[in-house]
Design a protein that fits this description.
By secondary structure, the chain is α+β, with helices and mostly antiparallel strands. It contains 18 helices and 38 strands. Strand 4 and strand 5 form a beta hairpin. It is globular, with a radius of gyration of 25 Å. The site of manganese (II) ion (MN) has 2 residues, from loops.
């Protein structure tokens, strides 16, 4: 007689019988050990809906991770490259205008139950109608395929920050990516007990052609906020499918709103000061503004490059990296500017390359500092120089702007030793960084928490680059770089930010950076590496070590401090003239920016009154300065302020 099948506790849903039918004995044992009714119920519902042939339930073991990697290759979603551990994955591509290589904002919607007020800025749809649509799309979507069931943990495990997540997917590429990006969570589910809450994601890549999602016209990402449950169909691009990234961020923002903490689109890094001191900074930068390159600065240590949870613990802000890996933009990543990442990407170890050019078993990307081969294989299939798509548009060798890589942070020598600290790291500073050719100075500090949240975070804008579609140099309003991911109203989100700092004994200082100022000829006023100096200045400021200059927009560095830091950090001269050009207050541009931001906020409901008040005060300070000193005011004409 065969061994008895492990008993999965069955909820009221008769579909639970399906578990016993489709899940193998090993999987049932894993589910039984969790004894979590909601897991079983969701899984049974997913099986009933998607109708997979088999179900593989994974735990945190290396054996299961290896199985997933193997499935990604045998299923054709990834191909091995020559270097050990390296694979390539291509996302769907029909033409430059119809592809699966970016987040699909239009088809990402919140399902709002009838009777609940819809927030006007959010892309929503009525819940029952949305569920009916997505269920229609997902019915039988896994027929003949294997369903993969994974458990992860957002934030370090066994910590006040941990949020367990259940990922159900038919894509081994998605499951593999999540292994590199997130902490294993099966044990966390066990630890939390049978009724602890969790986020859940049901993803199906749908019909594949040559390993990529083919039905991208039916790509849908629906977020059932009432159930902390996300559906995603007919996509493989990680920004849509790796549910633990930006989709879980949306659920986390709602949870943080209920519980009084912050879920942010921010890097987290240690900046190293004198005597071995390390001060921790979070930073919010819209895409293509230098976010990862700041977090990866030579001589500093990285905790995370994309998402942070911040909680008030014993009167201080403490932060963790939500993830444990990087899904980073590969374009322009080169040995000179990004030595550590370049080393990791060119040495053996688990790495997934996305939408690069492959030639002779090696990955190539735009701006890597090497000659691009004239032919190879890329997202469009076999590729040759000059190949065009059906619109006659030239196909770039690697996907312009959004070719990416995925790797675990443990591969990097500059990983901060506190990265897995269960209580997080104490947060000393928050940086907001936009791409701005003519308005803000390279670095400045806010007068206080409210001033920083409003005039730096809530007023964040970024100019479009050639890497994005559409016109270049257009300023995009993107408060806290989080606009794409908000799941509550912007007014409510800002209010939460304001009150978070007010409850702290010592709130982090708030800074704004701008690496992108240009001169009249359009040449950058700063080198890429100058940001290392701005960080050291901020680090000294959080310890009250340097005096600063009071400008209408915030505190500016003094010349002598920067000149010393340029010498110390970069062994580079820094002239008074460079300083005066970079740190001059450009009054009309600053006033124009305030006018743009106020206009945006006037169109929205529920914006905290402080937003208008603090922007009006800043406007007044700028006008006063203009009356006294003119339109372009050198920092040498501004008053010095003690620490
Ligand atoms: C970003 O675009 O901010 C990313 C990549 O980090 S995505 O996963 O698409 O959000
Ligand atoms: Mn991001």
């Amino acid at each position: 007689m065969g061994k008895a099948r492990p008993q999965v506790r069955q909820g009221v849903n008769p579909a639970c019988d399906l578990l016993a039918e489709r899940v193998g004995t090993r999987g049932l044992t894993k589910l039984a050990a969790l004894g979590n009714d909601r897991v079983n119920w969701l899984l049974a519902e997913a099986i009933k809906l998607c109708n997979p042939e088999r179900v593989l339930v994974c735990d945190d073991s290396a054996e299961d991770a290896a199985l997933i990697r193997g499935r990604a290759m045998t299923g054709g979603e990834e191909q091995a490259l020559d270097m050990s551990g390296h694979t390539v994955h291509f996302d769907g591509y029909v033409s430059s205008r119809r592809h699966d290589q970016a987040r699909d904002k239009e088809n990402t919607r919140y399902l709002v139950p009838v009777g609940c007020p819809a927030v006007e800025e959010l892309n929503t749809c009525e819940r029952e109608a949305g569920l009916a649509e997505i269920r229609g799309i997902m019915r039988n979507i896994m027929a003949g395929k294997e369903m993969l069931v994974r458990f992860f943990c957002l934030g370090p495990v066994a910590s006040p920050f941990s949020i367990p997540c259940l990922q159900i997917t038919d894509s081994a590429y998605v499951a593999h990516s999540e292994d590199l990006l997130y902490r294993p969570g099966y044990k966390q589910f066990r630890r939390n007990g049978s009724s602890a809450p969790f986020f859940a994601m049901l993803h199906a890549a749908g019909r594949l052609e040559q390993g990529v999602s083919a039905d991208i016209d039916h790509r849908r990402i629906y977020i059932d906020i009432a159930k902390d449950l996300i559906y995603c169909a007919n996509s493989q691009y990680a920004g849509n499918t790796v549910g633990l990234k930006k989709l879980a961020l949306r659920l986390a923002i709602r949870q943080a709103d209920r519980q009084g903490w912050l879920a942010e689109h921010m890097f987290l890094m240690g900046v190293h000061g004198p005597g071995g001191r390390v001060s921790y900074f979070c930073g919010a930068y819209p895409s293509a503004c230098g976010k990862t390159s700041t977090a990866m600065l030579r001589g500093e240590t990285i905790v995370g490059d994309d998402l942070a949870y911040i909680r008030a613990i014993c009167g201080r802000a403490r932060a963790v990296n939500v993830e444990k890996g990087i899904f980073g933009i590969i374009e322009d990543l080169n040995p000179e500017d990004d030595p550590e990442l370049f080393r990791a990407l060119t040495s053996p170890g688990e790495t997934i390359f996305n939408n690069v050019l492959v030639s002779d078993g090696r990955p190539y990307w735009n701006g890597m500092g090497q000659q691009m081969p004239q032919q190879g294989v890329n997202y469009s299939g076999p590729w040759w120089q000059g190949k065009t798509d059906c619109w006659g548009e030239e196909i770039a060798p690697s996907y312009r702007g959004n070719a990416r890589f995925t790797l675990a942070l443990e591969r990097l020598a500059n990983l901060d030793p506190q990265a897995e600290q269960a209580s997080g790291v104490p947060l000393d500073g928050i940086i907001y960084g936009g791409r701005d050719s003519d308005t803000a100075v390279p670095v400045q500090e806010s007068f206080d928490w409210e001033h920083g949240i409003i005039t730096m975070g809530a007023a964040l804008e970024s100019e479009t680059t050639a890497a994005t579609h559409g016109a270049v140099g257009v300023r995009k309003f993107n408060p806290m770089a989080i606009l794409d991911f908000l799941s509550i109203s912007l007014g409510r989100y800002l209010r939460n930010n304001l009150s978070f700092g007010r409850q702290l004994d010592r709130p982090p200082l708030i800074f704004a950076t701008n690496y992108w100022l240009v001169d009249d000829r359009g040449d950058y006023l700063n080198e890429k590496r100058d940001k290392a100096v701005w960080l050291k200045w901020m680090e000294a400021r959080v310890h009250g070590e340097l005096a600063a200059i009071r400008a209408p927009t915030g505190f500016l560095p003094r010349y002598q401090d920067l000149a010393r830091l340029f010498r110390q950090v970069l062994n580079k001269g820094y002239s008074r003239q460079q300083y005066c050009t970079q740190f001059a207050i450009r009054v009309p541009q600053n006033l124009a920016k305030i006018a743009r931001i106020v206009e945006r906020y006037r169109c929205l409901e529920g914006i905290p009154e402080e937003v208008f008040q603090l922007l009006a005060e800043q406007q007044q300070r700028l006008r006063d300065l203009q009356c006294r000193k003119g339109e372009l005011v050198s920092p040498s004409e501004l008053p010095l302020e003690d620490c």
